[in-house]
Design goal:
20 strands; eight-stranded mixed β-sheet; globular; nine-stranded mixed β-sheet; 2-octaprenyl-6-methoxyphenyl hydroxylase; alpha+beta; about 400 residues
Length: about 400
C-alpha cells in the first residue's frame, strides 16, 4: 500500500526545506524527498557556498522561529557598493537610509540547511525521505501517484499536492510537461572564499565587468565570499589556475578597493542560465524555486524570491481544505506573478546591459550608475524591492 501525504515536496534543498518549515505545525502530513542525506560535516566545496539573505527574508525566518539558530553564522551587509570596471559612476546604498539593522546577510549554505533540517526533525508530521530520487508521477483527479527510488528500490507514494523544488533541471517539471523559457548565459559562477589586506567589513561589493559581475561579500572578520561570473571557458581556466594566477586575475578585474588579495579557499563553479515557467502549475502540482524560475546570481535575488513564493503558498494552504485544489493553485500563481516577473526581468536586464560590449554602452552604464545617485527616489525604490521590505510589511 502506498504511503499518503497531504503535500509531497520533491527536492530538499534550501527552497524545498524552507517550504516544509513554513508548513510545520499546519497539521498536514508533509513528505520531503531528497537525493542526498543532510550532512553535519559539509565537504570543502559545500563550505564555500553561501546565500545572500535579504532583510525581508530575515523577517520570514524570524516568523518561523529559525533566525536565532542561524544568526551567529550571519555576516551582515550594511553597505552596498556598485561600480563598473574601467568607467566612472558608482552607486552606494546604506542600511541607515531605510531604518533597518542591515540590508541583508551572508550565510553559509550548510548552516542554513542545518537549521532547516533541525526544525523539520522536530515536527512529527514531516517525513524526510532521503536518499531518494523522483522517478515518475501519474496525476489524478483526487491525488497524484508517484514512484521514487529509495536505496535502489522502487517505492510508491500518493499525495494531494506535488511541489517541485528540484532545481533548474527539474525532473518534476519535465514529468508534468510544464513549458519553460530557457536562456543559457554561456557563463559560470566561480565561488570561493578569499582574504584581502582590507577586509570588506560589512560592505558588499558588486563590480560589473565585460565578462560578468564580480560580487565580494562579507563572510567573517578575516574572509569574504567571492562569486565571480565568467564565460564558461574562462571559468574553467580560472578554476585550473594555481592560487597566485587566480588572485592576480581577480585583482586585475576587481581593482584595489580591498587592497591586495592574498589568500584563496577551495574553488567551485556552476553554469548560469535563466529558466522561467510562464505557468508553473499543473493538475495538483506546482513548481517553486529554480524549478519554476532560475535567475542569474547578479543582485542575489533568486532564493529571496523563492522564500516569498513558499510563504504565500503556505499561507494559502493554512486556509484550504484541499491543498491541491485547482482554484488555490491559480490564486497562488496570480498572487506571485507580478513579483516573479519584476525580479526576473530586473536581474536579466542588468546582466544583459552590463555584459554588452557594444561601443558607447560603457558610457551609458556609467551615466546610469551616476543617475541612481542623483535620483534618490528611484534608487530607494529599487533598494526596498531588493530587500523585500514591501513584502515583509504586508506578510
Amino acid at each position: 500500500m502506498a504511503d499518503h501525504f497531504d503535500v509531497l515536496v520533491i527536492g530538499g534543498g534550501l527552497v524545498g526545506a524552507s517550504f516544509a518549515c513554513a508548513m510545520a505545525g499546519s497539521g498536514r502530513r508533509i513528505g520531503l524527498v531528497e537525493a542526498l542525506l543532510p550532512s553535519t560535516e559539509p565537504s570543502p566545496g559545500e563550505v564555500e557556498r553561501t546565500t545572500a539573505l535579504a532583510w525581508g527574508s530575515r523577517a520570514l525566518f524570524e516568523r518561523w522561529g529559525l533566525w536565532s539558530a542561524i544568526a551567529g553564522e550571519a555576516a551582515p551587509i550594511r553597505h552596498l557598493h556598485v561600480s563598473q570596471q574601467g568607467r566612472f559612476g558608482v552607486t552606494r546604498v546604506d542600511h541607515a537610509d531605510y531604518g533597518v539593522e542591515a540590508l541583508g546577510y551572508v550565510l553559509p549554505n550548510h548552516a542554513l540547511a542545518g537549521a532547516l533540517y533541525q526544525r523539520l526533525g522536530e515536527d512529527e508530521a514531516v517525513s524526510v525521505i532521503a536518499p531518494a530520487r523522483f522517478e515518475h508521477l501519474e496525476p489524478g483527479e483526487e491525488q497524484v501517484t508517484l514512484t521514487i527510488s529509495e536505496d535502489g528500490r522502487p517505492r510508491t507514494l500518493t499525495t494531494r499536492l506535488v511541489v517541485g523544488a528540484d532545481g533548474a533541471g527539474s525532473a518534476v517539471r519535465s514529468a508534468l510537461g510544464i513549458g519553460a523559457d530557457i536562456r543559457d548565459y554561456g557563463q559560470q559562477a566561480v565561488v570561493a572564499s578569499i582574504r584581502a589586506s582590507r577586509p570588506p567589513g560589512d560592505t558588499a561589493y558588486e563590480r560589473f565587468t565585460p565578462a560578468g559581475p564580480i560580487a565580494i561579500l562579507p563572510r567573517s572578520p578575516e574572509t569574504a565570499a567571492l562569486v565571480w561570473t565568467l564565460p564558461t571557458d574562462e571559468a574553467a581556466q580560472r578554476c585550473a589556475d594555481d592560487e597566485e594566477a587566480f588572485l592576480a586575475a581577480l585583482q586585475a578585474a576587481f581593482g584595489q578597493r580591498l587592497g591586495h588579495f592574498d589568500q584563496l579557499g577551495p574553488r567551485g563553479a556552476y553554469p548560469l542560465k535563466r529558466v522561467i515557467c510562464p505557468r508553473p502549475i499543473a493538475e495538483r502540482a506546482l513548481l517553486v524555486g529554480s524549478a519554476g524560475h532560475h535567475l542569474h546570481p547578479a543582485a542575489a535575488q533568486g532564493f529571496n524570491l523563492a522564500l516569498r513564493d513558499v510563504t504565500v503558498l503556505a499561507g494559502l494552504m493554512q486556509l484550504a481544505d484541499d491543498p491541491g485544489d485547482a482554484a488555490l493553485l491559480e490564486t497562488w500563481r496570480e498572487a506571485r506573478r507580478a513579483d516573479q516577473q519584476r525580479v526576473s526581468g530586473f536581474t536579466d536586464g542588468i546582466v544583459r546591459l552590463f555584459s554588452n560590449r557594444l561601443p558607447g554602452l560603457g558610457l551609458a552604464r556609467g551615466l546610469g550608475l551616476t543617475g541612481l545617485e542623483l535620483l534618490p527616489g528611484i534608487k530607494h525604490d529599487m533598494a526596498r524591492r531588493s530587500m523585500g521590505l514591501a513584502f515583509a510589511a504586508d506578510g
